[in-house]
Design brief:
Layout (H helix, E strand, L loop, with lengths): L1 H6 L5 H11 L7 E4 L9 H16 L3 E6 L9 H13 L9 E2 L4 H13 L3 E4 L3 H8 L16 H12 L9 E4 L14 E5 L13 E3 L1 H11 L4 E5 L6 H9 L11 E5 L11 H9 L14 H7 L3 H11 L10 H15 L2 E2 L1 E2 L2 E6 L7 E7 L9 E7 L1 E5 L3 E2 L9 E2 L3 E4 L4 E9 L5 E9 L16 E2 L2 E2 L4 E8 L23 E8 L11 E4 L3 E5 L9 E7 L7
Parallel strand pairs: 1-2, 2-3, 8-9, 10-25, 12-20, 16-17, 18-21, 23-27
Antiparallel strand pairs: 4-5, 5-6, 6-7, 11-24, 12-15, 13-14, 15-22, 18-19, 19-20, 23-24, 25-26, 26-27
This protein binds adenosine-5'-triphosphate and magnesium ion.
Length: 556
C-alpha cells in the first residue's frame, strides 16, 4: 500500500490555488511551513497538517519549514521540541534547513511593534483583564475605546521600553494594536500584540520579559521566511483579517506576492480527543501511561502501537482536505493499517489464553522442526522455523467437548488442522475441581504434515498453536478505544466517557522465533490480530506485545 501515497497526487482546493498562483506567475516556487506550538506531543490531527504542508512542498518541488511557534514559554518544553522533530521525521518528512523558532525573530518582532507604535497603530493599555473584556463588547454590541488609546507616540514608545525593561508587573499593561473597537471581527478590536511574562524561555532564556502574541508573531514569521501559502485550520478564519492587517502596516512586507493564509477543516476523529490540552490532562492525571501510551492518538502512541508512517500518510490522503467540518470514522484509520499489514506483516503464532494439549501418539521427548512461510502470498518474506512436539498449547476458546456445525475448531472425537503442521484429533480432556478444562489429550496423523489426509476425509477447521517446551512466555496488551463515546470532547468530564476496558492484559506464549522481534515491527499473530513488540517494555526475556489492530472490524 505504501506505493499509493507517493504515486497518486491528490487534488484539493489548496492545490488548485497553488496551480493558479504558479500559472499566473504570482509565485515561482512554493514554500510552506508546519508551525506547531511545542506544548505537547503531535497527534493524528497534526499528521493531517504535516502531510498537507510537506506533501505540497514535495509535489511542487518546493520547500517546507518546521517552525516552532514558541511564544508561550510557560507551557512549552524542550522535550516537546524534540519529540515533534522525531515525529515529523518518522512520518517520512524532512524540513528545509535548520529547525526554525518564532523566538528566532523576537528582536525583529520587537522592532515591528515599535514601527506600529511610531505609526500611531499600537498603544500600551493599562486596563486590567476584566476591564479589557468589558470594553471589548460582544458579537452583538460594539466595544468601547480604551482610555489609553490616544496616548502620544512618544509616551507609548517610552512605556513599551519600560515594559521590555521589566518596569511593570505581569498583567499591569499590554501593547495593543489600534484597529477598530467596532469591528464585526472580535480579533480586530484592538488585539493585544505583546504581553508581560517573567518566564524563562527554552530558547531565549531570560532575555525577554515581554512576549509577542500568536497573531502578531505568526504572520510576520511567515513573511520573514517567504512562505507563499500559509495553511491553517478553520478556527483562524477570522484571524486572517489581523494576519493581513499586521503585514499591510509594516514597510518590509509590501510585496504583492507576500504570504497569504488559507484555511482548511481540522481532522476530527470519532472516539478520539484531539486537543493537546486535553491529552496533556490525560497524561498529567495518569489516566494513560504517558504521551506515547499506545491508546493515545499521538504520533508517538500510534507508533508504539504498531502503526506505520505509510498507513498514517495513506489515512491523511484518504480523508482529503476541504473546508467542511466533519467527523471521520475510526474504521477508516483501522482500514489503512490493516490493509498495509495484511500485505506486509509476517505471520507468526501466539497463544493468548493457553490450554495444554498432549499428543499421545507422538514420541516423548522428540522435537521436530517445520519450515513455515512467513507470508502466505509473498515468498520473498522467507520462512521461519517452528518446533513441534508432544506437548503443545492452543487457545482455550479453540476446544470444546461438544461442538456444533458453526464451531470449526477442536471438539472431542473430531479432527482439526494445526496451522502449518498436522491434523490432530481430540480424544478426551481433564478438568479441575471447578470443571475448567486443564488438558486435552489428542492423537495426530503423521501423514498430514502440509497435506490433506490420504483417505480423502475432510478436515475443515484450522487452529493456531505453539510447542510448549520452546514457546516464550509473553504478555499481550489488548487495546480498545480509549473512550466509550464517539465524541468524547463533548462530554462534561473525560472520566465519564473513559472506557474501563481500553487495556486488557493477558499472559500467554509466543512461538520461539518471536524472541528477537524488533520493537514496533508488526506481525500478524494468526487468528488473533496484528501485534508488535512494545518499544519500552519488551525484551527477549520479557516479551510484551501490543495489539495494533484486530484482523477485522468487529462491527463489520
Ligand atoms: P491542539 O488544539 O491540539 O493543541 P493546535 O492547533 O493548538 O492543536 P498547534 O501546535 O498550534 O496545535 O498546531 C500546529 C499545526 O497543526 C497548526 O497549523 C494547526 O492548524 C494544525 N492542526 C492542529 N490540530 C489539527 C487537526 N486536528 N487537524 C488538522 N490540523 C491540525
Ligand atoms: Mg495552538
Amino acid at each position: 500500500m505504501s506505493h499509493v501515497d507517493t504515486e497518486v497526487r491528490p487534488s484539493n482546493f489548496i492545490r488548485n490555488i497553488i496551480d493558479e498562483d504558479l500559472k499566473t506567475g504570482k509565485h515561482k516556487s512554493v514554500q510552506t511551513r508546519f508551525p506547531p506550538e511545542p506544548n505537547g506531543y503531535l497527534h493524528i490531527g497534526h499528521a493531517k497538517s504535516i502531510c498537507l504542508n510537506f506533501g505540497i512542498a514535495r509535489d511542487y518541488n518546493g520547500l517546507c519549514n518546521l517552525r516552532f511557534d514558541d511564544t508561550n514559554p510557560e507551557k512549552e518544553d524542550i522535550d516537546y521540541v524534540n519529540s515533534i522533530q522525531a515525529d515529523v521525521r518518522w512520518l517520512g518528512f524532512q524540513w528545509d534547513g535548520d529547525v526554525r523558532y518564532s523566538s528566532n525573530y523576537f528582536d525583529q518582532l520587537h522592532q515591528y511593534a515599535v514601527e506600529l507604535i511610531n505609526k500611531g497603530l499600537a498603544y500600551v493599555c493599562f486596563l486590567n483583564a476584566d476591564e479589557t473584556r468589558e470594553y471589548r463588547g460582544t458579537l452583538k454590541e460594539p466595544g468601547k475605546n480604551s482610555p489609553f488609546r490616544d496616548t502620544s507616540v512618544e509616551e507609548n514608545l517610552a512605556l513599551f521600553a519600560k515594559m521590555r525593561d521589566g518596569g511593570f508587573k505581569e498583567g499591569e499593561c499590554a501593547l495593543r494594536a489600534k484597529i477598530d473597537m467596532a469591528s464585526p471581527f472580535m480579533c480586530m478590536r484592538d488585539p493585544i500584540i505583546y504581553r508581560i511574562r517573567f518566564a524563562h524561555h527554552h530558547q531565549t532564556g531570560d532575555k525577554w520579559c515581554i512576549y509577542p502574541m500568536y497573531d502578531f508573531t505568526h504572520c510576520i514569521s511567515d513573511a520573514l521566511e517567504h512562505i507563499t501559502h500559509s495553511l491553517c485550520t478553520l478556527e483562524f478564519q477570522d484571524n486572517r483579517r489581523l494576519y493581513d492587517w499586521v503585514l499591510d502596516n509594516l514597510n518590509d512586507f509590501q510585496a504583492p506576492n507576500r504570504t497569504r493564509q488559507y484555511e482548511f477543516s481540522r481532522l476530527n476523529l470519532e472516539y478520539t480527543l484531539m486537543s493537546k490540552r486535553k491529552l496533556n490532562d490525560l497524561v498529567a492525571r495518569k489516566l494513560v501511561s504517558g504521551w506515547d501510551d499506545p491508546r493515545m492518538p499521538t504520533i508517538a502512541g500510534l507508533r508504539r502501537r504498531g502503526y506505520t508512517p505509510a498507513s498514517i500518510r495513506e489515512f491523511c490522503q484518504r480523508i482529503g482536505v476541504t473546508k467542511q467540518e466533519n467527523m471521520i470514522e475510526v474504521g477508516m484509520l483501522d482500514a489503512c493499517i490493516r490493509e498495509e499489514l495484511n500485505e506486509h506483516a509476517p505471520r507468526a503464532m501466539a497463544v493468548l489464553r493457553p490450554l495444554k494439549v498432549i499428543i499421545e501418539n507422538y514420541v516423548e521427548g522428540k522435537l521436530e522442526f517445520i519450515q513455515a512461510a512467513a507470508h502466505p502470498n509473498d515468498e520473498n518474506m522467507g520462512t521461519r522455523e517452528l518446533a513441534f512436539g508432544r506437548e503443545i498449547l492452543i487457545d482455550i476458546a479453540d476446544f470444546k467437548e461438544e461442538g456444533n456445525k458453526q464451531y470449526k475448531r477442536l471438539v472431542t472425537g473430531k479432527e482439526v488442522r494445526l496451522r502449518n503442521a498436522y491434523v490432530i484429533k481430540a480424544e478426551r480432556c481433564d478438568k479441575d475441581s471447578d470443571g475448567n478444562i486443564t488438558t486435552v489429550y489428542c492423537t495426530y496423523d503423521p501423514e498430514t504434515l502440509g497435506k490433506n489426509p490420504a483417505d480423502g476425509r475432510k478436515v475443515k477447521g484450522v487452529i493456531h498453536w505453539v510447542e510448549a517446551s520452546t514457546a516464550k512466555p509473553a504478555q499481550f496488551r489488548l487495546y480498545q478505544r480509549l473512550f466509550t463515546d464517539p465524541n468524547p470532547a463533548a462530554a462534561e468530564t473525560v472520566d465519564e466517557v473513559l472506557n474501563p476496558e481500553s487495556l486488557i492484559v493477558v499472559q500467554g506464549f509466543a512461538e520461539a522465533s518471536l524472541v528477537n522481534a524488533p520493537a514496533e515491527k508488526a506481525y500478524q499473530f494468526e487468528r488473533e490480530g496484528y501485534f508488535c513488540a512494545d518499544s519500552k517494555d519488551s525484551s527477549p526475556n520479557n516479551l510484551v506485545f501490543n495489539l495494533t489492530v484486530a484482523l477485522r472490524d468487529s462491527f463489520e
